[in-house]
């Protein structure tokens, strides 16, 4: 078959795809700008989407030049990794699943493929097949890179939030001179009860607190593990010379504790945080007296 | 108040007498033999001086293992036999957490936040059970 | 991290003075590897229990320390070995309240609760080797912003 002047002779189909991407970069980027992946991330201006598209095309061309179409670790991808992760993250934030993001990236392939085919009108059938295969592999690798970055972003986010939650969810509050309290909200696992115990004990030292109140009103369930954590905290507080009161034991939880046969015998308990505070104040020699006659008395 | 060091000798922990109370300040890392010597010294000093309270300040102690835990429990038990009350004061949070994890809760031991609070505790009336036990108040 | 120099060591356990060195070295090594204060205290206490076991029951021996790096978190491995009579009934020795010497019966079982990984290899008449590993909690710093 005779060679045509418009199609130069190349070493490999991948490199030919690379050349094509350079040649048609502008058009590819223009078409991508209308695809959901770009359109939804660059909502402000379409030009921005086109610019981002051009950068990605250039990266793909580079990867193709080096014959690494199948390699997600190819050097060419490093430039666009941040760009891609931003797009993946934006889609995740919008509530899209990984499979949907994968489809979005997949949707980028047909426009490029059409342009490629239009660019090779006179090439042999074999050559066309080789080039489209190289492009397909390259786009598949791109999809892999996007998913990889999106997933690792997700992991990093989860880890950050986990640590933030540990710190945010356990504020130690000074209720009165010598009385500190931690209102616990949410499930108590081992890592969290460790943080609770440490911050409560640190507060006991700092505030010279004689009473530490652990309020479990916001803890959904108490199983034997949670009970064990509570008892450890109580024991550690006692070793330091303070008294720990567990408050906020709802009737349902009290029932569970009894049903499970858990022995909280060594733990001082009160039904509500108010009761615990009244108790601690009383022990410190301060009592709350209602100013209005006929009001409910203090404990 | 009389301030006299009973045995300011190397290998011994100084036992300071403040009126009716012995103040023992543990610092840093102790040899096992030093801790055992202390146990003996405190017993001897209670007998010779007739004090009614012992305060062991452990705010300078970085770890309490089962050996030192046992020494503290035995000092308290021995003092009780000699009609003196013992308070362990100033345990660090990290030490308390570790002891609980280790399983050493020393139930018979009285504790206080610091030496001053321990002194106040000992100068008050002798109440072995400070709290009447748990109360459940579900309304 | 260039911390191996301050971590790797082999210390003899022959007297109660050696126990002090063991505790100080473990504390230093754990601090170098980024253990928090509570984590340090737990590991030092476990080391103290195990070293005392080596001394009292094993008739003396040694402790080796080794950093475990390269993973997501830094770890410290301690190996206590003696050539003593060995532990005839390991199950019982690990259960709470069991004691054959001084202490409150917390030695082996208590030490196990203070570390993340715990292994005993004991042959009656040949000796005992206890290996423990603890990991420093991962640092609460975010890995860079988006």
UniProtKB/TrEMBL annotation, chain A:
Residues 169-280 form the STAS domain. It comes from Streptomyces resistomycificus. InterPro entries: Bact_StressResp_Reg, STAS_dom, STAS_dom_sf. It comes from the Bacteria. Pfam families: STAS (PF01740). Keywords: Phosphoprotein. This is STAS domain-containing protein.
From TrEMBL, chain B:
PANTHER family: RSBT ANTAGONIST PROTEIN RSBS (PTHR33745:SF1), RSBT ANTAGONIST PROTEIN RSBS-RELATED (PTHR33745). It comes from Streptomyces resistomycificus. Residues 11-122 form the STAS domain. CDD domains: STAS_RsbR_RsbS_like (cd07041). This is Anti-anti-sigma factor. It comes from the Bacteria. It holds the Pfam family STAS.
UniProtKB/TrEMBL annotation, chain C:
Residues 38-138 form the Histidine kinase/HSP90-like ATPase domain. InterPro entries: HATPase_C_sf (IPR036890), HATPase_dom (IPR003594). CDD domains: HATPase_RsbT-like (cd16934). Pfam families: HATPase_c. This is Anti-sigma regulatory factor. It comes from Streptomyces resistomycificus.
């Amino acid at each position: 078959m005779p060679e045509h002047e418009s199609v130069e002779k190349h070493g490999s189909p991948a490199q030919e795809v690379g050349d094509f991407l350079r040649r048609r970069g502008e058009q590819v980027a223009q078409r991508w700008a209308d695809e959901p992946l770009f359109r939804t991330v660059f909502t402000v201006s379409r030009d921005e989407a086109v610019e981002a598209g051009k950068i990605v095309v250039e990266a793909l061309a580079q990867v193709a030049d080096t014959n690494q179409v199948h390699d997600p670790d190819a050097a060419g991808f490093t430039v666009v990794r941040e760009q891609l992760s931003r797009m993946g993250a934006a889609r995740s934030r919008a509530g899209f699943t990984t499979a949907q993001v994968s489809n979005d990236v997949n949707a980028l392939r047909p426009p490029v493929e059409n342009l490629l085919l239009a660019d090779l009108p006179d090439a042999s059938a074999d050559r066309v097949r080789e080039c489209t295969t190289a492009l397909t592999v390259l786009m598949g690798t791109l999809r892999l890179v996007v998913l990889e970055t999106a997933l690792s972003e997700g992991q990093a986010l989860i880890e950050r939030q986990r640590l933030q939650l540990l710190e945010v969810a356990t504020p130690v509050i000074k209720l009165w001179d010598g009385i500190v309290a931690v209102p616990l909200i949410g499930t108590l696992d081992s890592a969290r009860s460790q943080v609770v115990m440490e911050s409560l004990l640190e507060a006991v030292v700092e505030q010279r607190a004689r009473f530490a109140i652990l309020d479990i009103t916001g803890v959904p369930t108490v199983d034997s593990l949670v009970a064990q954590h509570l008892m450890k905290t109580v024991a550690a507080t006692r070793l330091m010379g303070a008294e720990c009161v567990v408050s906020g034991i709802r009737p349902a939880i009290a029932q569970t504790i009894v049903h499970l046969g858990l022995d909280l015998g060594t733990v001082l308990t009160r039904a509500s945080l108010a009761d615990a505070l009244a108790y601690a104040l009383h022990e410190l020699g301060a009592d709350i007296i209602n100013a209005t006659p006929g009001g409910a008395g203090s404990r | 108040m009389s301030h006299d060091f009973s045995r300011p000798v190397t290998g011994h922990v100084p036992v300071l007498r403040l009126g009716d109370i012995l103040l023992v300040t543990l610092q840093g890392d102790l040899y096992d033999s030093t801790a055992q010597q202390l146990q003996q010294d405190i017993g001897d000093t209670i007998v010779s001086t007739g004090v009614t309270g012992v305060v062991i300040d452990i705010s300078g102690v970085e770890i309490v293992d089962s050996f030192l835990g046992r020494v503290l429990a035995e000092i308290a038990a021995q003092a009780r036999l000699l009609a003196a009350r013992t308070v362990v004061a100033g345990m660090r949070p990290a030490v308390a957490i570790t002891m609980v994890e280790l399983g050493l809760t020393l139930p018979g031991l009285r504790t206080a936040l610091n030496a001053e609070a321990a002194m106040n505790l000992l100068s008050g009336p002798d109440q072995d059970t400070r709290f009447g036990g748990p109360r459940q108040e579900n309304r | 991290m260039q911390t191996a120099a301050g971590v790797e060591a082999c210390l003899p356990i022959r007297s109660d003075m050696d126990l002090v060195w063991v505790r100080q070295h473990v504390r230093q090594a754990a601090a170098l590897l980024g253990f928090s204060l509570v984590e340090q205290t737990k590991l030092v206490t476990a080391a103290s229990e195990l070293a005392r076991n080596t001394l009292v029951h094993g008739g003396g021996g040694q402790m080796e320390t080794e950093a475990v790096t390269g993973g997501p978190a830094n770890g410290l491995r301690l190996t206590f070995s003696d050539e003593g009579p060995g532990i005839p009934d390991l199950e019982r020795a690990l259960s709470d309240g069991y004691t054959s010497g001084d202490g409150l019966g917390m030695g082996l079982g208590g030490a196990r609760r203070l570390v993340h990984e715990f292994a005993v290899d004991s042959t009656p008449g040949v000796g005992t080797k206890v290996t423990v590993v603890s990991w420093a909690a991962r640092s609460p710093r975010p890995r860079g912003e988006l």
